[in-house]
Write a structure and sequence with these properties.
The structure is a homodimer.
Chain A (H helix, E strand, L loop, with lengths): L1 E6 L8 H13 L2 E7 L1 H8 L8 E5 L10 H7 L4 H10 L5 E4 L3 H12 L9 E6 L6 E4 L9 H17 L7 E5 L10 H12 L3 E6 L1 H6 L4 E3 L2 H26 L3 H9 L1 H11 L6 E5 L4 E5 L5 H16 L2 H11 L1
Parallel strand pairs in A: 1-2, 1-4, 2-3, 4-11, 6-9, 7-8, 7-9
Antiparallel strand pairs in A: 5-6, 5-10, 10-11
Chain lengths: 329, 329
């Protein structure tokens, strides 16, 4: 049984949806979950479920909020659910940690507590984006605003490993996000990174533009954390801008209003296809331990999916595989 | 009358839609248009219109295609419609030039022929993006993949002038595109640019995230050309991805199919709101002359709008205004 530490107090719907997701995971997956946080609150939530699997509770009195500055919060709140959950991995009482809480704080606590995989210069946050076919893994989506070419190469290698281990994509196709397909296109960073990715033992297809990404013609897309975070936010903004325009058009007159009513199931179908929650969240790659950031808005099902991905990363020895690649270079 | 040189052979629908747009502009606006390109073809198009304003034709035998490498095309095809149109501005036979052709070639020919405004380090391409309110001007959207902080400051100043002169926005609100609102957020480039924009004589509101941009809370958004070009392409990809998903859902069963039929006018309304063609195209700012890149897919109406914007930039002495700002610093 794989032991996973759960930050039960992190996320918009903590602890209720986190505990609910953990209970579901404990019934469906070969895992043992350690729920970390205010014991009385967690036990109260647990008491709602008669049927549950291997679950235990570890008390932690403090909570790091989403709007807190990561470094000071991690340093000051030693007894926070997030810090204590990470420390269980450090003490080898758990094999991995999942949190839906403050992203920066989870990265900081993991770096302080577990460190980097030897050879990895910078850990990255990887996110799954919807496409016309299967999801694409994009990294970095926010851990590093300024990157060096070698770091992009390592992101590519880590992302390819994750796709293979956890997503079960065979020989994942890796692309470098760019504004053109030719290798001399783009800024200094990407033109410098191109030959490094070409020489790396990954299935590198070259530069990719956004349209190839959404066509589902690529599995891993590499970019610096400023660009990655920006396109994540930009995509969300374009989607909600278009939906908003659409709603306005739909409520213009009784005919469109009626049509909109008929289309409610279609809207639900699109929401499901584009919902980031469906994929559970984002792994933090390059940390010397399995750390998974569940979506801040994760409800039970999304959180259960996050636990499943985390379990697979442990089963497949993701950290060991990444270490081996870096050791060879 | 303002004399404007028109590259009649550039763009997907040249020369027919270009000539048609020019004829319309000649009837509606106080301009004198010089159509540059293959004289026989242009005259054949012109003969379709009985009613037309001040139009003349200058012959140029060559055409630069969209897929040609800009620098070599501009150097080799001296007698191309694009080169000859720019040279009319150089010889002061025209006050401005409009082309729907190869963007890189237009920038190159303009830089070679007209040079930069004294003090301006790099010219930028500015594009209008739709928002919930009035359009926002984004620059640079592709002329400079690597930028320095001072260049971003100049983009901000040029963009603000354009918005005031041509869009008639009073005291345009300028923002720096970023992944967070706090001034210490982002990569080295934007954190370095922030204080320069703050000290500049523009209405600088600080960092803006994509959601503020689409909310229409800002008039000018500044970024480097790699990021600008990427978000332009990313936005188009997200839109067509969503529309494609939607179409699939709509054709799933007879009820949704019927609803989709009822919604055709709504779709058209959205297309109009998000259509880049409506705004005519993108000015090239920082060139020592008024140069306007019409959209490659511009039809007559869009091309006429491009001519109108170009005329206003000349009327308002955009180049002179930008020169004055830079001379003061």
């Amino acid at each position: 049984m794989i032991r996973i530490a759960i930050d039960a107090m992190g996320g918009d719907f903590a602890p209720s949806e986190i505990v609910k997701g953990a209970v579901q995971a404990s019934l469906e997956l070969p895992v043992e979950l350690i729920l970390v946080g205010k014991a009385d609150k967690i036990n109260k939530e647990l008491s709602k479920y008669k049927k549950r699997g291997a679950l235990s509770v570890v008390n932690a009195e403090e909570v790091i909020a989403n709007n807190e500055a990561p470094v000071s919060a991690v340093k000051q709140k030693k007894d926070s659910s997030l810090n204590v959950a990470v420390s269980l991995v450090k003490k080898q009482e758990a094999a991995a940690v999942v949190s839906a809480g403050n992203t920066g704080a989870l990265m900081t606590a993991s770096l302080f507590g577990l460190g980097r995989i030897p050879g990895i210069e910078r850990p990255a946050i990887a996110g799954l984006f919807p496409t016309k076919k299967r999801p694409v893994l994009v990294l970095d989506i926010g851990a590093n605003s300024d990157c060096k070419a070698k770091q992009l190469k390592q992101f590519a290698e880590m992302g390819a490993q994750y796709c293979e281990c956890v997503m079960h994509y065979k020989s994942p196709r890796v692309g470098l996000l760019n504004i053109g397909e030719e290798k001399e296109k783009g800024n200094e960073l990407v033109t410098e990174a191109w030959p490094l990715l070409k020489d790396s033992p990954i299935n590198f297809l070259g530069n990719v533009e956004p349209k190839e990404m959404f066509a589902g013609e690529i599995d891993v897309v590499v970019c610096d954390g400023f660009v990655g975070n920006l396109i994540l936010k930009y995509g969300e903004s374009v989607s909600s801008f278009l939906l908003d325009l659409f709603k306005k058009e739909l409520t213009k007159n009784p005919i469109t209003y009626f049509a909109a009513f008929l289309l409610l199931p279609a809207f639900a179908g699109i929401k499901k296809r584009t919902d980031y929650d469906e994929y559970g969240g984002a792994p933090m790659l390059g940390i010397n331990g399995v750390v998974f950031k569940a979506h801040g808005r994760a409800k039970a099902k999304a959180f259960k999916n996050a636990i499943r991905a985390t379990m697979e990363a442990v089963q497949q020895d993701l950290v060991g595989r990444i270490s081996k690649i870096e050791a060879k270079q």
